[in-house]
Amino acid sequence: MNPIIPFEPIRSDTVPLGDSWIYQIKWDGVRILSYCDDSAIRLYNRKKHERTAQYPELTERTYCRASSFILDGEVIALAADGKPSFHEVMRRDGIRNLSKVPQARQEVPISYMVFDVLYADGAWTHSLPLRERQRLLADLLVPGPFVQPVASHPDGPALLEVIRAQKMEGIVAKNADSAYAFGGKDERWVKVKNYGDLVAVIGGYTLNGGIVNAVLAGLYQGGRLIFIGKVGTGKLTAQDWVELTAVVGSIGTSECPFASRHPDMKGAYWVKPLLTAKIQYAEWRVEEGRSLRQPSIQAFVQVPPEECRFE
Fold first, then answer.
1. Most distant CA pair in the chain, distance
2. Active site residue 26
């Protein structure tokens, strides 16, 4: 059973309306597909990179009644405020020294929020309408300490208001009559976010007292790295900033990697464009040439820099 690239929603500022739509919370986590055949369960992310060892809680067959299956969902971890935190889940997903998994499992509990079933009992289900896949998922999924179904709601605008009040990520509207397209991304699924986020390349940094206190972020356009903002806040701890200082010191360069200079680059040190980070922001008027407003680092991620491009 080979891993597939999951279907992705497009982004919109408005909630699509109509009887054919259902609405779900957009969980701020890591997209994970669970594959089970006759031998074992394996976990892969949206890039088809294996994550089985990072989430041993999800390798028990007891959470699905099917003898074989592919489930699609989001692995989340909660912050101290009880809300999903991308920074927290990356403490699990980013583990490469697998001897650290048992301790991380205790420190960062996770939940698998399952929203689709693509294969069950030897048959592909992705071509079925979403409403039928939802009924099948309800019959097959066995909720437990680490696995929960994603609830569907009939009123998208009302759900979005609740999400905004709770300062969570957003919602996804899904056409209940639609099939699931492997590797697809179109208007069958629409995400409406409470705030924006993107993965950007780090091209420089500034220091305060010898410790990094901000990074300079950019995206590629036509092979050129375009500056999009100076980011000095976020979910990073004081120890994270100390560790980042050591990392950027090892990849420093005398040449500015950005296509042009910006006033926010005053006093900056340059690095080779090798690091990438998920950045959250309140607003970005890119068509006006503006920088990100109120950007904050959520976590450093293992995304190839060349994939960080203007859409």
1. 60
2. yes
Determine which one of 26, 174, 193, 230 is catalytic.
26
Q: Is 171:23 a contact under the CB 8 Å cutoff?
A: yes
Distance CA 200, CA 206 (A): 17
- The answer to whether 305 touches 276, Cβ cutoff 8 Å, is yes
Sequence-distant (≥ 6) Cβ neighbours of residue 76 within 8 angstroms? 27, 28, 29, 30, 84, 89, 110, 111, 113
Collect all residues with Cβ–Cβ distance below 8 Å to 149 and sequence separation of at least 6.
113, 114, 115, 137, 138, 141, 143
Phi then psi for 286, rounded to 5 degrees?
-65, -35
Which element (helix H / strand E) includes 157? helix 156-166
Domains of the chain in start order, with CATH, are: 19-193 (3.30.470.30), 196-307 (2.40.50.140)
pLDDT in tens, 167-198: 898 999 999 999 999 999 999 999 998 888 89
Which residues are registered as beta bridge partners of 226?
219
Q: Residue 299 and residue 91: Cα distance in Å, rounded?
A: 9
